[in-house]
Design a protein that fits this description.
Helix content: over 70%
Number of helices: 10
Shape: flat
Radius of gyration: 24 Å
Strand content: under 5%
Order of helices and strands: HHEEHHHHHHHH
Distance between the termini: 47 Å
Structural class: mainly alpha
Length: about 260
């Protein structure tokens, strides 16, 4: 506990000063890193009846995440700042394993959110360096992160309850708003597709389960539901035609303010 406290305190002190050129800064950095190593060694050496106590291991890993962010800012090392959310995610995964959290979403959501944070930090560093920030690897990492966020609700809606699709809808809305805030078309498009997909799943999954029990009448019910949805969507689009056209022009058009 003392070594973890020392690690965090030294990192925060170095971050607050933000002058790594001073002669004592390397010594503080070394002491902070050694404190992390000692904390990890102490946690790994403390075992319970089932082996290493993962709850203790998660604490210094989480402290290392904070340390990486502080030292990265103080020493102006973007790679250390990007390492921070990865270490925080690792700490959460270890803690979730120690707490026996069995839900898939506890793990996939953390990984997905971590990937998206890393993407945003990486894009910021590229912009500051004057390099293109829309590289293909970053886009692939971004789609992977969104996919991890959606994996939990998708599996839960198929295996447990269709109401879990509402979580997917919420994630889709969040991705859409994220795209609007950052003026990136692919994020808005992805969010819209996710919302439509999970809304369809929310309707179709219960319908598919009920149709075999209804026999031939189920087919007509399915047609009626699909028709009703089509009419509802058409009415909403007609009512907000100007807004929709303006939004589509920005998202799918050539507006120079959007990526």
């Amino acid at each position: 506990g003392l070594s973890v406290g020392a690690c965090v305190a030294v990192a925060l002190l170095l971050w607050a000063v933000r002058r790594p050129g001073r002669e004592w800064a390397p010594s503080l950095t070394t002491a902070s890193v050694l404190a992390t190593v000692l904390a990890l060694a102490h946690a790994a050496g403390h075992q319970d009846g089932s082996g290493i106590n993962l709850g203790l291991v998660a604490v210094p890993v989480g402290a290392a995440a904070l340390q990486a962010a502080c030292l990265g800012i103080a020493w102006r090392r973007p790679s250390l700042v990007r390492l921070s959310p990865i270490l925080a995610c690792l700490a959460w995964l270890i803690l979730a394993r120690w707490a026996n959290l069995d839900g898939l979403q506890f793990y996939t959501a953390a990984i997905g959110l971590t990937l998206l944070v890393v993407v945003e930090l990486w894009r910021r560093d590229l912009r500051l360096a004057g390099s293109p920030d829309g590289a293909i690897p970053l886009r692939a990492l971004e789609f992977t992160g969104i996919g991890f966020l959606l994996l939990g609700p998708l599996v839960q809606s198929l295996t447990s309850s269709p109401l879990h699709a509402l979580i997917g809808v919420a994630i889709g809305i969040a991705v859409t708003l994220w795209g609007i805030a950052t003026r990136i078309r692919r994020r808005v498009r992805t969010g819209v597709v996710v919302v439509l997909g999970f809304v369809g799943a929310l309707v179709l999954i219960p319908l598919v389960k009920v149709l075999p029990e209804l026999g031939s009448a189920g087919l007509w019910i399915a047609i009626a539901v699909v028709g009703l949805l089509a009419v509802l969507v058409a009415a909403l689009m007609e009512r907000g035609k100007k807004v929709v056209r303006s939004g589509f022009a920005r998202i799918w058009g050539d507006d120079p303010d959007w990526e």
